[in-house]
Structures are given as structure tokens and as C-alpha cells.
Amino acid sequence: MQIDKKNIPETFTVKIEKLSNLGLGIAKYDGYVIFIPDTCPGDTVKIRMKKKNKTYGFAEVLEIIELSEDRTVPYCKMQKVCGACQLQFISYDAQLRYKKEIVEDTMHSIYGNPVEIRDVIPSPLTEEYRHKIQYPIGQTKDSKRIIAGYYKNGTHELVNIKHCPIQPHYCDEIIDYIRNKAQELKISGYDEKNGKGELRHVVIRTSYENKKNLIVLVVNTEYVSNPIKLLAESIYKDLDNICGVSVNFNAKKTNLILGEKTESVTGQNYIEEVLCDKTFRVSAKTFFQVNPPSANKLFNYVKEYIKTNFEKPVILDAYAGITAFGICMSDSAEKVVSIEEEKASTKLAEEVIKSENITNIELHQGDAEEFFRTQTQLGREFHITILDPPRKGCTPESLDYALKLTKDKIIYVSCSPATLARDLKILTERGAEIEYIQPFDMFPHTYHIENVAIINLKNVCKD
């Protein structure tokens, strides 16, 4: 019998049972589900209800009565203030267990069929692992001091962060220099309420391989002002390991960090990163995994799976970005065909293919679904299709085409368990068989989890 939310008291004690897919603790009151932030399975907590919907509600912790054995002391002093590392108060081994449970629960609720979820492969690094850093820039109201950091959890209140332990330590020095130099050059920080202020964000792309850094100054203008030019030149001249400084133009009142246009001011406009012994170029807007050591594990895992199960297959690399999968798999393939919508990414892939002397990759730039359609009409066939779409996943039409184009296996790489579960349901309804899902921890201390699904197409009817 469903409980009436009016009968739920305002304050009471519960025990946390599990984590939600957004990292919130889940407890129940007579079957009524309650989501509670900053809690860990095994905690006994006194809570106050904040919002009551018909079948679930949200609460805040008033008191932790009994601590879970999986709790630990966060190594970042700002963990409760900054919204980036939601799970840092949970031991790393327990985080991995809970992430596996998140994938299992999501598959059960959305996919609905039995599927093997393997143990999460841990990240080689749990500190200083994040190699793409995006700082919002603001300014204090009275002193007009430039601040840079992250938003307070659940708000748009900017917290000035001096040290972030999940990113390389030298990034703290870089952003501190930029704060002070921007102040000296009288560059204004952005105010998102009124849309004023020149410097909106600072983005750092930092190479795990050689520790070089590309700095991107995101400005609220459509040109490079003299103070911004001086700031860029000073960063390049005064700081170590800066390979280049670019300016990105974003004058729209939007939550998007980067605008369409980027201009290199000094130095080079990319960093170099290594995956599977191949050297890639990563620019301001290039999609590339933020945790290179963990990404290397994932890419080598897929490569080893293909080498073990196929002899020189023809591979389709879809939603390819800079064709990272295709380039990494090229040694094991007869041919790789890559499709990517972003022109800049395709251009970077061309440069890498040339520098690595790879001769068996066919690059295409355009919409993936349209490419699938034309290749289907041509009667083309691939042994393996690697799908690595954006977080929103694939359209049903794209999945149908992928089934028609692929002879043996689809390898689906996803950062969203929910959209993966939705797309796997579509594929199995058309006869595909999910062999297993292998999760990878790309994002320690957060609720995010990367998954590789191995999908067998032997029973799919292609008509």
C-alpha cells in the first residue's frame, strides 16, 4: 500500500540502504523513497524532509547517529563546499562497489533483462587524475577581486579554490598566476546575472604524458582585447610548461563554457597525449578523456578484446571524435572507417594518422546517422562497430542502421548508465545479445562511471 506523503513526519531517523545514480543516499520510510545527499550506505541519520513528491522525497541530514564502516575522511578540505567530488567521504574500494551497484540498478530498472555486470576496473590514479580543468571566473562585489574556482554544491555561488587535489598540482599555480595577472591588468571577471565582465572561464588542457599545458581564456567578447592579449603573452612567457595560449569567444548569455570560435594567441593550439602508444593532439574543444591513465586501460581493454576474438577485422568507429578508438585499433584491423561530426576533431585525426604513418584508416566528417544511412544503401558491412556517442546516447534510427551495418559485434562505450540501458533495450528488442558490461572508473570520487558493453549480433535479422 502506497503511503500518503502527508503522513510522513518532518524529522525522523533512517538508515541509508544504497546510492542513487546521482550519488545520493537512498532510504525508505514505509516504502516511500527518500534521497539524502552526503550520506553513505550503512549510515544511520536523523533527517529533515525538504521536498515531498508523490512517490519520493528529498531530505537533509540533521545528525549522523551511526557512521557507515565505508566512510573515510575526505583529503580535500573543500569537499563539502565544492560540488565536484560528491563521494570523496567514501573509501575508494567502497566507491567501486557502489558504482557497480549503480550500473546494476540502472540496468534492472531501464533495461529490464539479466545482464552480467563485471567488477569496476579502478583508476590508476585517485588524486591528480583530472587533465581537463574548467574554472569559472568571477569578481567580488566590493573589492572587485578576481576569483576562480567551482560552484558551491547545488548553487551558482562561485567558491574561490586555491587547491584542488584531483587535478595536477601545477594547475593551482597556473590559475593563481592568472587571478593575480588579470587583476593587475584590470581585466573584469564575469557576472552571470547581468552578463557583464570580460573573462568568463579559464580552461586548462594538461598533458599526462609530458606535463605541458594549453591555456584557453574564454572571453565575453568577439575579439581579443589588448589586456587579454597581454595576459595571454604573460602566461606563455612567465610560466613553465605552457605550450600555448588561445582565446575562445563566448559573448552569449549561456551556460555553455566554450563558444564556437577559438583563436591561438601564442604558442601551439594543442597538447599531445598518448593512448595505446599512439600520440594524439588535443585542442581547446577536442573531446578527450579527462583521466588519461584510466582511458589507457579502457582503450587497451577494447584493443585486447578485438585482438583475442578477431583476426584483422574491418571496424567502424562511430562518433569518433579525434578517432582515438580507430587509431588505437588500427594495428589490429584490416581497415578502420571513422565518422565524426566535428571538423576540428577530424582535422586533428588527419594530423595524427599522418604523423603515426597509419595507412588503413578512412576518415569521414559528417553526421553519424546520415553516414550510417548512406553506408547501408551502399551495402557496406563491418565486423565490429564501436559506438562512443555523447552522453545523450544514440537515436533509435542510428541503432537500427548500426545493426544492419555490423556483422559480428557492437562495442558500445558510454558515460551514462541510463542512456546505455535505454539503447541496449532497443538493440535486444531487435535480436542483439548483451554478453556483458565492463565498467571503468574514469572519475574517482564522483558518481560518474564509464561502461563498455559487448554486444553479439549473431541472432539479429538484417532484413
Number of domains as seen in the coordinates: 3
User: How much helix, percentage-wise, in residues?
Assistant: 25-40%
Query: Which strand order does the major sheet show?
Result: 9-8-7-10-11-12-13
Per CATH, the superfamily of the largest domain is Vaccinia Virus protein VP39
Counting DSSP E segments of at least 2 residues, the number of strands comes to 22
Structural class: alpha/beta
User: How many H/I helical runs?
Assistant: 9
* End-to-end CA span: 47 Å
CATH topology of the largest domain: Rossmann fold
What do the pLDDT scores average to?
A: 95
Outline the biggest β-sheet: 7 strands, mixed
Structural account:
There is one protein chain. The protein has 463 residues and is an alpha/beta fold. It folds into 3 domains: 62 residues, OB fold (Dihydrolipoamide Acetyltransferase, E2P), CATH 2.40.50; 191 residues, 3-Layer(aba) Sandwich (Rossmann fold); 144 residues, OB fold (Dihydrolipoamide Acetyltransferase, E2P), CATH 2.40.50. The strands form 4 sheets. The protein has a 7-stranded mixed β-sheet with strand order 9-8-7-10-11-12-13, with helices on one face. α2 runs antiparallel to α3 and α7 runs parallel beside α8. The protein is globular, with a radius of gyration of 24 Å. 42% of the residues are buried. The mean pLDDT is 95.
